[in-house]
């Protein structure tokens, strides 16, 4: 499914690679490109909300262009589009999380909400939610 969904315009990074780099103390800036409602349900630990339909480059004016960025959404389509915009704006180290938040959850990795770690994850829609094998699915 992902091969057909991605245009491969932004390099991808696996959940294992992100975990490894974070465990090694490599400073990755995780950017959540989903809706604010999805982000509020849960997100990667330490992730910064940037949105998709309301994405604004000026929200990243404090981020140097050589900062290692990992963009993600539910499965990686929306984040790839935001990654393209970041690259066009001069960001040189942009990677798209392969499989997105769903793959992160399916690998048993933690997500957080405003109170801390949670098992809830916004499954986007019931059609897309079939790809989420772990976690407590939440729909609007």
UniProtKB/TrEMBL annotation:
PROSITE patterns attached to this UniProt entry: RHODANESE_1, RHODANESE_3
SUPFAM superfamilies named in the record: Rhodanese/Cell cycle control phosphatase
Top-level taxon of origin: Bacteria
One protein family per Pfam: Rhodanese
Domain Rhodanese residues, every copy: 24-113
Lineage of producing organism: Bacteria, Pseudomonadati, Bacteroidota, Cytophagia, Cytophagales
UniProt-listed InterPro entries: GlpE_sulfurtransferase, Rhodanese-like_dom, Rhodanese-like_dom_sf, Thiosulphate_STrfase_CS
Organism: Pontibacter amylolyticus
Protein name: Rhodanese domain-containing protein
């Amino acid at each position: 499914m992902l091969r057909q969904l991605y245009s491969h315009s932004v390099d991808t990074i696996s959940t294992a690679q992100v975990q490894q780099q974070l465990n090694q103390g490599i400073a990755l800036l995780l950017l959540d490109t989903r809706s604010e409602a999805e982000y509020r349900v849960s997100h990667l630990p330490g992730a910064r909300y940037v949105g998709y339909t309301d994405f604004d480059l000026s929200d990243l004016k404090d981020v140097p262009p050589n900062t290692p960025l990992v963009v993600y959404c539910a499965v990686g389509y929306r984040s790839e589009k935001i990654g393209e915009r970041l690259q066009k704006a001069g960001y040189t180290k942009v990677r798209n999380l392969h499989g997105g938040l769903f793959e992160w959850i399916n690998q048993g990795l933690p997500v957080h909400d405003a109170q801390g770690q949670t098992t809830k994850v916004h499954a986007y829609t019931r059609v897309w939610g079939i790809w989420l094998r772990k976690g407590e699915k939440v729909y609007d």
